Fold these 2 entries.
Entry 1:
Amino acid sequence: MKYERLERAVVDQNLAAMSEWKLGADGISISKSFKFRNFVEAFSFMTEAALAAEKFDHHPEWFNVYSRVDVTLSTHDAGGLTEQDFRLAKAMDKAATRRAS
Ligand SMILES: C[C@H](O)[C@H](O)[C@H]1CNC2=NC(N)=NC(=O)C2=N1
């Protein structure tokens, strides 16, 4: 399935409804830093997010140190942001909510 890049106004609209996700300086990605109680919580979040990523066929760039997971989402095939990025972002927010920080 081919996803089309979203217009900037639609990106802004999506971001306004989400908590702590920021548009990258490049304008083609969104990022958020997730904080957990410890490494086990962070890694279990990553496991759940990885399964969602496989299901959606849409994969994150991320960086983990101990209890922190920095996530950047972009649709490489489209050269920018698509509905897939927001779909995965929302799944990640849900997974994080189930693990108190
Ligand atoms: C063939 C496969 O559907 C594509 O390579 C998918 C896989 N996961 C992906 N993940 C992300 N973040 N961007 C993509 O463009 C992308 N493309």
Note: Helices lie at 8-16, 39-56, 83-97.
Entry 2:
Amino acid sequence: MANQSSLPLYEKIWAKHTFSRIMDSLTLLLLFLLLGYRISSHNNHTFPYFVAFLCESWFTITWITTMSTKWTPSHTKTFLDRLLLRVSESKLPPLDIFVTTADPALEPPIITVNTVLSLLALDYPANKLACYVSDDGCSPLTFYALVEATKFAKLWVPFCKKYNVQCRAPFRYFCDEEMANHDLPEFKQEWFKIKEEYEQLSGKIENAAQNSIPCELVGEFDIFSQTKPRNHSTIIKVIRENKGGLSNVVPHIIYISREKRPKHPHHHKAGAMNVLTRISGLMTNAPFILNVDCDMYVNNSKIALHALCILLDSKGEKEVAFAQCPQRFYDAVKDDAYGNQLVALPMYIGSGFAGLQGIIYAGTNCFHRRKVIYGVSPHHDIQNANKDHHGLANDKETMQKFGTSKGFVESVTHVLEGMTLDFYKSLDVKAARKVASCDYEYNTAWGKQVGWLYGSTSEDVLTGLKFHTKGWRSELCSTDPIAFMGCSPQDNLGQMAQHKRWSTGLLDIFLSKHCPIFGTLFGKLQLRECLAYIWITNWALRSVPEICYALLPAYCIITNSNFLPNQQESSMWIPTTLFVIYNISNLFEHIKSGLSIRTWWNNQRMGRITTMNSCFLGFLTILLKHLRISDTPFEITKKEQPSSNENVGRFIFNESLIFLPGTTILMVQFIALFMSLLEWQPLVSNGYGVGEVFCSGYVVLCYLPFLKGLFGKGKYGIPLSTICKSTVLAFLFVHFCSKTIAN
Ligand SMILES: O=c1ccn([C@@H]2O[C@H](COP(=O)(O)OP(=O)(O)O[C@H]3O[C@H](CO)[C@@H](O)[C@H](O)[C@H]3O)[C@@H](O)[C@H]2O)c(=O)[nH]1
Ligand SMILES: [Mn+2]
């Protein structure tokens, strides 16, 4: 038998997606044929052909990056038994957990509380865990909810461990009434007792949200009386300290609301993460960090151990910066009506990334190595670090980089030297306050070389990209059952706003000095990883060719011209087959991911709608930002419990500009189809044919929710102002069309 300690703790499994590969290659071939046709066609000097050629070239480039990303998918298999043979439970490394919340209205405290409870109950020695909750909303309600939840945790944590509960978020766990029919009478009794306690807890939080916080607690809440969410000093409260360092109790839990002042940029989530990094550095300084958004509860209680298989593996130890767990969502809207469940896409693109230099950092559900966050490169020489960090001069250097807190700099030195001893003595709030102040980062490397990087609302992808550029790899930690579950937007407004933020933030990265292309030229970003990053960061740019392409059939019908080969030409088979092959392969991928045909269509349709609306707005936002006209905000996604959702898959609309491109495109198709019905076009040769009419009809089909919106009432209707603006734009477009004929 092989020596136990030399066996790897995890293994990469390479998936074979042969059918997908064939279909993808066919698609590429057809795209090339189409481009070839454009170049060689006798029509190639017409305006529509030229525009089509440009758009299709862009699609081809995008397709090459897509294909390269998908080509070698992989995931990981972890060996818990080997881990536990190698590291005894008492030798497991400490783990700091970061939870971020920012707005008690959009992120109801009961959701945050459930996430925190599930984390406190992780299958991991409690004396190795510390849970830090960052509240950018500076909300006494959130604090109150956490205080109450900690009391409940004293029942919940032992209960979960005793009965080996899988889902450790009570609101999900108690949904399942089946549990009560357990054979063990003792279990049954406890189950009911704890369920009742949980109901009391959520009742209290509900009550506090509606009325006010109970007065017996007022003393503790005084500190919130003078605060405004965007203007207050630091609040740090140790809600629970595991003073005895016991392994079977409730871990440390610390509430943090960092200082905020109107004049100081706070860098949204990235800023919050950096404060958490520093405070935890001072307090517990664990070598590993797990970060989750407030809505992502633990669904696999052993997940920390799985992730450590990757991070402690002898190869992983040297190469892997972080272990990212997939993002999954609970209580999806039926058939994914808003296309935000992201199931098929991660299965192909996500594991594709994982087969290259590594999966992107998704901002949540991720286990980090603390020293990587401090800017260390792989194969960083510990001997050297030792030498480096003892001289006084180097302490000075470290201070310039990490800021002037002596305690924190000392903790950094520990991490860089790879010291494994537990740093925790007591949770010192005074030192922690200093590193949470808004001027702490002045003239330091925070947000630039150290910590979460600033400058993009997709701080996650940016930060991960930086690690990859340094030469680190990352792994997808795919477990069964899935590690974490969270909320996804429950309506199209949330979904579209989210995509706008992502596409804006991602384009910001592409246009910054962190651009993946530079990463490959000057750093250690591997070529195909670079292509994959180009694929993802170019999301917003994709909107422009897609909008042009959607307008093209209408343009052709209005001007009686064509952009597709006409019926007499035999080359019509190229675009037709392309359309068919692309859709079949996409449909196949959805079915293989266990999704319905309806879901496929919804995703397909939402793909078009978000690209042409959300991403286009994202594109404009970046344009304005670069012209220094406006800055990009971080709009927080609303988290709600699905029971409150009455839209059941219907689209809702508001005055937002986000609906303008779509409404206009739809109007233009109407005008075109109407004209074709009445045969109003000028008589010129090369008139449009079935192809153009089909395409125009297809666009209308994709925009069916908008079509319904034109006739809908209240929030289900597109506001009159948007309709008016769109009508004006549509007629401008028609006017432009007629101008081009006149020429
Ligand atoms: O100023 C802020 C803004 C946001 N957040 C937190 O950031 C997290 C993510 O925000 P959310 O509105 O849920 O965004 P999503 O669109 O769901 O987030 C995805 O995309 C983000 C980047 O755009 C990543 O940061 C997230 O981890 C990733 O889940 C939440 O916990 C927020 O509380 C803060 O702490 N401070
Ligand atoms: Mn979220």
Note: Residues 293, 295, 486, 637 surround manganese (II) ion (ligand 2) (CB under 6 Å).
